[in-house]
Structures are given as structure tokens and as C-alpha cells.
Amino acid sequence: MSTTNDYCLGITSVPLTKFCIVGLSLLLIATLTACDSHVASQLLSTSPSGRTIHVTGSGSVTGEPDIANLNIGVSVVRPNVADAREEAAAAMTALIDSLKANNIDEKDINTQNFSIYPQYDYTEEGRKLRGYSVNNTVRVKVRDLTTLSDVIDDAAEAGEDSIIVNSIQFMIEDTTPLQSQARTLAVKNAEAKAQTLADASGVELGKPVTITESTYFESPPIPYAAAEAAFDDSGRTSTPISPGELTVTVNVTVIYEIE
Questions:
Q1: 148/156 Cα distance (integer angstroms)
Q2: Of 156, 171, 186, which residue sits at a domain end?
Q3: How far apart are CA 169 and CA 243, in angstroms?
Q4: pTM
């Protein structure tokens, strides 16, 4: 009887924390056993992605623009809305006719903005209505860049004092070939960097784990004036426009395994 009591006392004298540890261990084993063997092995093993090299690579290719987006229109201020709208409508009609006369397809002429709003003069006596401003602008896609100067000059002549030119943007309509070349250069650049890092660290470079990329386009500033002006057959000074080159750049971020 005393032996039994001693045995029971021996069990109860074990710290409670030991039972908790044993219980949690058994629960963890049971949980891992119940899980899929693949998932369990992932939980128990170290991920190889912990040994990696992160690098960025860049590749750039230049090409000549083949189209231009021209933002052009008219702006008229007159004492009343009716006169301002009428004059702006006549000027815009003449402008669009000049665009079509330069072989701009109607589908390449898109209205970008039309607005009517009052204009005020501010004096010591307060605000005084000066008139109403009517603005009408279109975006014009010029597919033949050799005609761009004539497109601008003829539009300016048609719109007269109402003409406004907001911007010219040169573009390459299909950048897919340039992007492919730039992407190849970027990946090679990243691989060369990774190999240099691996050699310097005394490790062997493995395969890429992930690759992400970003692409952007860069064009030089557009010169709106030139030291020497060109003249057409009518003796009119042509607006000098130089499309320059467009640079397509691809950046890649690559993560390589270390073997």
C-alpha cells in the first residue's frame, strides 16, 4: 500500500510544464502525420530559396519614330458666347479641312477638349466680365513624318490668330521588335552581374528563380526653332521639326539560386 502511494506521489511531483511540453510534442507529431507528406516535408526542411542572389539588369535600344501625335486647336475670346462659339467653329472647321488636305485620315483626328468659360478682368472696383473663351483641341496622328511641318504650317494658316499648338509627341507604332531586343540585353546584363557576384563570393550560380521586368520609353526634347530655317516653294518659312530617336529601355530583376 505504501509502495503504491509512493508511486502515485512520484507522478504528482513531476512539474506540470513537463506534461505540457510532452503534450505539445505529441500534438505536433500528430498534426504533421495527418498533413500531406509533401507539405510536412516543406515544414521540416529548409527552403532552397534562402540561398539566392538578387540582381537587376538593363537593356536599351534606340529606333526612329514613325508617327507623331499632334495636339492642336483653336482658342477664341469674344464679348459674348454666340460670337466666340461661331468664330471658334469657323476656325476649327478650316483647321480640320487643312489636316484632311494633308492626307490626315478622319479616324486619326480625335477631339480632346471643348470648353466655354467666362473671362474676367480684376480691378480695384472688383471683377468685370471681359468676354467668353471657347477652346477646341484635337489630337492628330501624323503617320507620314515628312509632312509634319506642312501639317503644322497649313493648320496655323487656317486657324489664323486663333491657332494653338499644345504638344507634339513622337512615337514608334510597333515597339515589339525593339522591346524584344532590349529584353534580351537586359537579361544578359543581369546574368553577367550575377555571375560576377557568384565568382567573387566563391559560389556556383544556379538557375533563375524569378524574373520581373519593366519597360519605358524616352525621347529627346523637341526643338521648336532652328538656327537655319527651311523654305518651301512658296517662299514660306517651314516650321523646323526634328523627331530624333526614341529609346526603349527594359529593366529586369532576376533572382538566381546559389548551388
A1: 12
A2: 171
A3: 9
A4: 0.64
In the block, which residue shows the cell 475670346? 77
CB burial string 55-86: b at 16+ within 10 A, e below: bebebbbeeebebbebbbbbbbbbeeeeebbe
- Indicate left, alpha or beta for 51 from its phi (over 0: left) and psi (-120 to 50: alpha): beta
Closest of 216, 218, 217, 209 to residue 253, by C-alpha: 209
How many structural domains comprise the chain?
A: 3
Structural domain harbouring 102: 67-171
Over its C-alpha atoms, the chain yields an Rg (Å, rounded) of 36
CA distance 48 to 180: 31
Inter-CA distances, 79 with 93, 116, 258, Å:
21, 12, 75
CATH number at residue 185: 3.30.110.170
207 and 229 housed in the same domain? yes
User: Is 73 within 8 Å of 113 (Cβ atoms)?
Assistant: yes
Same domain, 192 and 227: yes
**Band of residue 6 on the pLDDT scale cut at 50, 70, 90:** very low
pLDDT of 46 strictly over 70:
no
pLDDT bucket at 216, cuts 50 / 70 / 90: confident
pLDDT in tens, 119-136: 999 888 889 899 999 999
What is the C-alpha separation between 86 and 90, in angstroms, rounded? 6
Residues β-bridged to residue 169: 69
